[in-house]
Amino acid sequence: MKGIVEILGEVVAGLKEDLTISVCDGVGHCTEIEKPEVNYIFGNDMYIKEQLDTMSKSPQSADRKPKFPLVALFTPVIEKRDSADYQMKANVNILIACSSRQEWSNEQRLTTSFVNILRPVYERLMSALKSDRRLNVAYDGVIPHTYSENYSYGRYGAYTQSGQPVSEPIDAINVGNLEIKIKNVKCVNRRLQ
User: Fold this and answer.
1) Whole-model pTM?
2) 68, 87, 154, 190: which could join 100 in a potential S-S bond, CB 3.0 to 4.6 Å?
């Protein structure tokens, strides 16, 4: 039986299908990227920071997975296994991030980061969660959560709870209390003929 950490990782791995982002250099030159790889990291804020720092220090190579865009699942994930209506349920917190530049204005961040990269990843993630057959989406097609666009990470820096700075500027969407319900696994006995 897979937990929410693994299931969300599989969902993120499939995000590149039907995803197009536009990566801009901040001076107006943009490149449209179809089916971009989306990085997935799970852990506490310190672990996620350490993984990003390690990726920043390692040399670029064709086989290295991209650092951004990133979907980060904050752990621990407390799974409720208290109902016959579902296998497990949890409210999770996710960060969707992309690289940024400290000198950008909020107006530049809006277009370059949020409109071109982060919102498309967010929308694709929500769509993928709704269509995943393992998840119980019985909320009229809406998965309850909070949504916040954070423009200050890129300008003033992102920090862990212990005050450690992230090694580079990022822009990010914080998705909070995202309610994930995993359906019960149903086995059907079949006679061999």
Assistant:
1) 0.92
2) 154
